[in-house]
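User: My instructor asked us to take a sequence, write out its structure as tokens, and then describe one feature of it. I'm not sure where to start. Here is the sequence I was given:
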Amino acid sequence: MNRERLMNILLAPLVSEKSSRIADDHRQFAFRVARDASKPEIRGAVELMFDVKVTEVRVSNVKGKTKRFGAVQGRRRDWKKAYVTLAEGSDIDFMVAE
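Assistant: Let's start with the prediction itself. The structure tokens for your sequence are:
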């Protein structure tokens, strides 16, 4: 896989109560990923960027919400979410102190 492509797969970590709970209980981390990313690409991107071993990747396509501002109706973009399970002994720490 192309290293440059892998660097553009992960868009942002998803930090919420649910993602914190599954990270503590099951070593799973949630990421917002590119819409055209495949499971092997997501696995490669996480292993490359965080130097961990990934055992499983699950993806979910999230539909954008319909929103309105007065008479103008619009819609937010669809996006893709990935749940990445890490191997025993691996961990990702998003809070890096400098």
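For the description part of your assignment, you could build on this observation: The first strand starts at residue 10 and ends at 13. Try explaining in your own words what that tells you about the chain.
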